[in-house]
Amino acid sequence: MSQALLSIENLSVRFKTYAGTIHAVNSMSFDVRPGEIFGLVGESGCGKSVTGLAVVRTLPGSGRISGGRILFHGEDLAAKSEAEMQAIRGRRIAMVFQDPTASLNPVFTIGQQIDHIIRHHTGDNHETARRKALEWFNAVALPDPQAVYDTYPHRLSGGMQQRVMIAMALCSGAELLIADEPTTALDVTIQAQILELLVKLRDQQGISILLITHNLGVVAETCERVAVAYAGQIVETGPTSAVLARRLHPYTEGLLAALPTAVQKGQTLQPIAGQVPDGLQPIAGCPFHPRCSKALPVCAQVNPALLPVEHADHLTACHLYTEAAA
Amino acid sequence: MSEPLLIETRNLCKHFSAGGWLGGGKRVVRALDNVNLSIQRQETLGVVGESGCGKTTLGRVLLRLIEPTAGQILFEGRDIVPLKGEDLRRQARDMQIVFQNPYSSFDPRFSVRMSLAEPLQTHQGLQGAALEERASELLTQVGMPVDTLSRYPHEFSGGQLQRIAVARALALNPKFIVLDEPTSALDVSVQAQILNLLQDLQQRLNLTYLFISHDLSVVEYISSRIAVMYLGKVVELLPTALVSAGQAQHPYTQALLSAIPEVSAERRHKRTLLPKSVFEGKAQTGGCSFAPRCPFAMDVCRTVEPPLLELEAGHLSACHLANEME
């Protein structure tokens, strides 16, 4: 697909640990189009954060990309050298993390930290960098930008710190922002402010956003398209409204049915039976089949491919649809 | 109300002093400010609010894990604030707590057997086979296999460990359990399992819950009544049915509801974006503490503190707008 800004093709990531090799990402594929907010959603351990880190090539510890391609403007990031990545990371692709307190250095002022970033990437002098920083603080709707510039991180609330992080991420002209659970550590009222900010930045600056989250409500309200990840694979992807309404994959259906808002008060909730696999033992067939209430015999043998169902843009990896057609 | 009350608080206050180190001015944080609440037998009272609203402090003060600064806590009609020594220990058997993070609420060097045995030995003097039998019974109650006893906390997932935390809270047959964000660290599919378990246990064992959460959708599902807290005060108290029917009166409750990202379009509220955060909107004395962020604030709100008044049976709100309407 030539229209994609970022195209993940059969990406696999492995971690070597004392307990064995962890298959964190298994042949994951999806793409992010220019100017869209794309949601990557899933539960703990589904490989969504690792995928984000793999794109900017900052996998921790023993993490290695063991297969697949990460095409950004058609160039494979997985094949780039560290020196080449330095020119892309921060300048063209930027990342924002869950905990802004842990992302900021407590012993430097906000101004010193953003100044360092702008000057490193652009070679601007201090005064130009300061002006740019203040413009960005305005763009992310920080009240009193000059006061924020001069202060230390601990003087700011979580929501303001996250605004600073977004300004720092975008100040060097990145066109793709990877936001990994950017609102999970924040209160709902602040979460609403930050999500609105992300949508506004996309509208005004034309950036694309890969929004990684566990919260289906956040996806429903901010993302045009979504991919649902399970055990390191995409099980369903398509336009957000179609995925949430049609719920082709039993896992998508299970996730939505487990929400407290899915049932009437007084009724029992419907959890998904069993547990998320730990990635140590590869599962034969579809990774969801041990927990799936609709599993067929073939599900234990063959891992289904991600194929379009009903609409060319709405894909799912499930034998229920191919078996029915066969 | 005719139901006998299990717990009643009268003008409960907890003030912490903060600052005063390295030249900062000393100030008093009113974590609980004249809280008057009652909890009926076998009900679930939900407490919601943003970080720093005092909801966790409320749970801990009710159990005397934190000493109140002033006020009374009546447990079955008896004030438990003056209790000391053996009397307090005896009282503690009736009141238990489950914390948010199960990984930090277990001693990593204790096997599950040791964690469960401690309260049984200390309070009931159980030994040997009787102890083993009671511990196994507790695990069965929460749906964990009996071989769990000889394993250690790190061997379990968050959901499993939270089940064991519930088992430990049940050890002494308490009447009242404080659930402090018991599902916030869990994935939705596991959250559904724990919420089902809690409801099931409540029915079988006639338990009374105080359910603390920042997630209004969870609280709405599990509680019969909801108390909304803001900066140490209860600003609205109402039956859950009124929340679901869109009849919450306080502008803060309405803003909280509107900020929840919803999956289904029907449940989505028109969003009221609150300016600033709790801490930025705090610098004032007298008047309503929510006035600096309130979209409907009037002159009177900045000078006179609104009392918590009954609007209709069982629905209380502390807002000048409510009085205006009458």
Could you explain how this protein is built, in words?
The complex is a heterodimer of chains A (326) and B (326). Chain A is 34% helix and 24% strand. With 326 residues, chain A is an alpha/beta fold. Chain A has a domain of 159 residues: P-loop containing nucleotide triphosphate hydrolases (Rossmann fold, 3-Layer(aba) Sandwich), CATH 3.40.50.300. In chain A, helix 4 packs across helix 5. The model of chain A has no long low-confidence stretch (mean pLDDT 93). By secondary structure, chain B is α/β, with parallel strands linked by helices. Helices cover 31% and strands 23% of the residues of chain B. Chain B is built from ten helices and 13 strands. Chain B is globular and about 70 Å long. The two termini of chain B are 24 Å apart. The chains are: A alpha/beta (326), B alpha/beta (326). Chains A and B meet through helix 7, helix 8, helix 9 and helix 11 of A and helix 6, helix 7 and helix 9 of B.
Q: What are the key terms here?
A:
heterodimer, A: about 325 residues, alpha/beta, Rossmann fold, B: about 325 residues, 8-stranded mixed sheet, 5-stranded antiparallel sheet, 10 helices
Topology:
The complex is a heterodimer of chains A (326) and B (326).
Chain A: E1 6-17, E2 20-32, E3 37-41, H1 48-55, E4 64-72, E5 75-76, H2 82-88, E6 93-96, H3 100-103, H4 110-122, H5 126-139, H6 145-150, H7 158-170, E7 176-180, H8 188-205, E8 208-213, H9 216-222, E9 225-230, E10 233-239, H10 240-246, H11 250-257, E11 307-309, E12 311-316, H12 319-325
Parallel strand pairs in A: 3-8, 3-9, 6-7, 7-8
Antiparallel strand pairs in A: 1-2, 1-4, 4-5, 9-10, 10-12, 11-12
Helix pairs in contact in A: 4-5, 5-7
Chain B: E1 5-18, E2 27-35, E3 38-40, E4 44-48, H1 55-62, E5 70-75, E6 78-79, H2 85-92, E7 95-98, H3 112-124, H4 128-141, H5 158-170, E8 176-180, H6 188-205, E9 208-213, H7 216-222, E10 225-230, E11 233-239, H8 240-244, H9 251-259, E12 309-312, E13 315-317, H10 320-325
Parallel strand pairs in B: 4-9, 4-10, 7-8, 8-9
Antiparallel strand pairs in B: 1-2, 1-3, 1-5, 5-6, 10-11, 11-13, 12-13
Helix pairs in contact in B: 3-4, 5-6
